[in-house]
Amino acid sequence: MPTEPRRPRSATVLFAAALLLFVVGSVVAWWQPPRLFPLKPQTTAEWWLQPLENNAFQRMPRIDEDLSDVFVVPKTGEVWAVGEKGLIVHSRDGGRTWKRAKTGFGSSLSTEQPKSSPSDLGKQQEYLEKVLNSLNREMQDLWDLRDPEESGASGTRMAGKGPRWKALTREISIKESQIAEFKSRLNGLLNKVDADSRASPMLTAIYFLADGQYGWAVGAEGK
Fold it and tell me: Structurally, how many domains does the chain consist of?
């Protein structure tokens, strides 16, 4: 009865070594820390030693306000930064991680999109203004159809106040209500933006003593 040929011992050793190398490499790759500067191009050595990341900026803390000053406490790794809306942020590890200092102002430092960021408020304002412009144009078109002579449009004035005239009048009334509603929403949004800006002053400079324990920040309006 023919016997099955035995696998060479060298092939078995190579297979076991390759399997061990794969397991060790997978474990090392799994526990590799993220890059300190993910936006900096990688060198050849870093390509082998550091993990590859797609959209690495999404894991980085994001500051939604403009910065006006940064202070690095020498030989400590302490970094402080200030900006608009009373923003004060602090890093203990040379900028690797950041925390917002409690100041009572409404600045934001997060890795998630804040609910009322300046960009969101700007988009809301743009949307409301766009809707208002559209409603005003529609209102003007209705006036042109109902009373072309009074609105300066070309056309024939409707004889009497028949069904068509009344229907247009109802549509005009609805548009007026919609315009009033969106104007109220826009004014409320503008008031909120103005109140936020007055309640959260712009900080323009920050300075710390050499020990890194005592410092001060200054800004607009004497705050």
Answer: 3
